[in-house]
């Protein structure tokens, strides 16, 4: 009796052996595809080395730039040294100029002192010198009097003896004897003493100058005195 296939769609039924075969082929194909896509180890290393080389090149400084920086640093160092040397030279010159100026000022001061000493009159240690020195002092102090007026009164009062002392007149009786070239008593000498002269009443220049100062106050000038005063 012949058998008829059931009506409707027919479906091929794969055996277990066929299923395994198909799965194996698929697995082998995937493996082959993966191997063909992934590069070999040597090729991968070459690719990585190329990538690293590119990265390293991106961070490296050109040789010309390094030389330029070194040159700038050297120039800056040289400029700093030059500035220090220039300041040292300027300070040395300033010190030398100051020393030269001081030496010049000292020399001028000495020369001025020498000229002043040369101009300063030298008075003889006698009646003529005492009168002349007193006249110069009187002139500087504004005290009137002449050489003749001083000489005339000196000769009358003491005959030119600076140590003359009157021990018999009224002044002596009162305890204040007249002393010196122009016979001045101590109170009068003290009152009319002229600054810059000795405080010793026996000093000839101090005695003459104080007496002339007193006569100028009392009589207008020693030239107006012709007797005891």
Briefly, what is this?
With 229 residues, this protein is an all-alpha fold.
Model description:
The chain crosses the membrane at residues 20-38. Residues 154-226 form the Transglycosylase SLT domain. Keywords: Membrane, Transmembrane, Transmembrane helix. It holds the Pfam family SLT. InterPro entries: Lysozyme-like_dom_sf, Transglycosylase_SLT_dom_1. The protein has 229 residues and is mainly α. Among the domains are: 75-120; 130-224, Lysozyme (Orthogonal Bundle). Helices cover 66% and strands 0% of the residues. It has helices at residues 16-37, 41-59, 63-119, 127-141, 147-158, 170-173, 186-192, 204-219. Helix 4 packs across helix 8. The protein is rod-shaped. The N and C termini lie far apart (204 Å). Residues 1-13 and 20-59 have low confidence and may be disordered.
């Amino acid at each position: 009796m012949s058998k008829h296939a059931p009506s409707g769609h027919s479906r091929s039924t794969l055996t277990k052996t066929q299923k395994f075969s198909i799965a194996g082929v698929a697995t082998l194909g995937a493996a082959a595809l993966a191997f063909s896509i992934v590069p070999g180890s040597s090729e991968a290393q070459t690719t990585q080395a190329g990538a690293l080389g590119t990265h390293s090149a991106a961070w490296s400084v050109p040789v010309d730039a390094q030389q330029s920086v070194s040159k700038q640093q050297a120039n800056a160092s040289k400029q700093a040294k030059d500035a220090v040397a220039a300041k040292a030279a300027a300070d040395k010159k300033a010190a030398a100029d100051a020393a030269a100026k001081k030496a010049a000022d000292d020399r001028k001061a000495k020369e001025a002192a020498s000229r002043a000493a040369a101009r300063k009159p030298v008075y003889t240690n006698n009646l003529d010198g005492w009168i002349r020195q007193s006249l110069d002092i009187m002139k500087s102090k504004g005290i009137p009097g002449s050489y003749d007026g001083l000489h005339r009164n000196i000769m009358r009062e003491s005959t030119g003896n600076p140590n003359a002392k009157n021990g018999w007149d009224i002044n002596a009786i009162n305890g204040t004897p007249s002393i010196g070239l122009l016979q001045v008593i101590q109170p009068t000498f003290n009152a009319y003493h002229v600054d810059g002269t000795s405080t010793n009443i026996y000093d000839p220049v101090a005695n003459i100058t104080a007496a002339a100062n007193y006569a100028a106050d009392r009589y207008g000038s020693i030239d107006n005195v012709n007797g005891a005063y």
